[in-house]
Amino acid sequence: IRPITAEKCLALRHKVLWPQFPPAFSRVDGDDQAQHFGLYLDSLMVSCLSVFTINAGEYQMRKFATDTEYQHQGHGSKLMTHVLAQIESQGMHRVFLNARLAATSFYARFDFRTVGAVYYKEEIPYVVMERHAGHTLTQPAYLS
Fold first, then answer.
1. Which residues contact 5 (CB under 8 A, 6 or more apart)?
2. What distance lies between CA 102 and its chain's CA centroid?
3. What pairs with residue 50 in β-bridges?
4. Which residue stretches of 18-74 are H helix?
5. Which of 20, 45, 66, 93 has the most crowded Cβ, counting Cβ within 10 A?
6. Which of 137, 119, 136 is nearest to 128 (CA)?
7. What is the reported pLDDT for 20?
8. Cα–Cα distances in Å, from 137 out to 5, 33, 43, 57, 88?
9. Measured distance CA(61)–CA(83) in Å, rounded
10. Which residues are within 8 A (CB) of 126 and not within 5 positions of it... i.e. 6 or more apart?
11. pTM for the full predicted model
12. Could you tell me if residue 74 is left (phi over 0), alpha (psi between -120 and 50 degrees) or otherwise beta?
């Protein structure tokens, strides 16, 4: 896992998130000021995530993408764990994201909680989720 540029994220974002649109559709305002992280297997980036500073201690994660060939293998979880530790070390007290409804169970594993109603972007259902500093990952009841 290493810091990367917005440009390095763009191709993977486009391929995974919005392949039906031109690549520029995957670019967002503020990309040039955001922190971008890539998870590499050898020289191949298989997952990327961008973090935008909203206010002191408040961040937004955007455009989290893992190549479909490498999903469900732990790569996205490894990147999420790394990025959360990184922004917590920078004084994060709140981080939020706009999650595709189909991915909310993934984010819930990292103690993100839904804070808004479902909305749609290009016919895909989304919901806002947030996580506050000091949360530790919830231990499943059967392990208690």
1. 36
2. 14
3. 36, 62
4. none
5. 66
6. 119
7. 87
8. 29, 29, 31, 20, 14
9. 9
10. 98, 99, 100, 101, 118, 119, 120
11. 0.86
12. left
Copy the structure tokens of residue 86. Answer: 């990184």
The token duo for 84 is 């959360």
Q: Which two tokens stand for residue 19?
A: 């392949």
Structure token digits, residue 104: 């909310």
Residue type present at position 29:
D
In single-letter form, the type of residue at position 113 comes to R
> Which amino acid appears at position 17 of this protein?
L
Alpha helices in 34-141 (DSSP H): 75-89, 104-108
pLDDT in tens, the chain (144 residues): 999 999 999 889 889 888 888 877 888 889 899 999 999 999 999 999 999 999 999 999 999 999 999 999 999 999 999 999 999 999 999 999 999 999 999 999 999 999 989 999 889 999 999 999 875 544 333 333
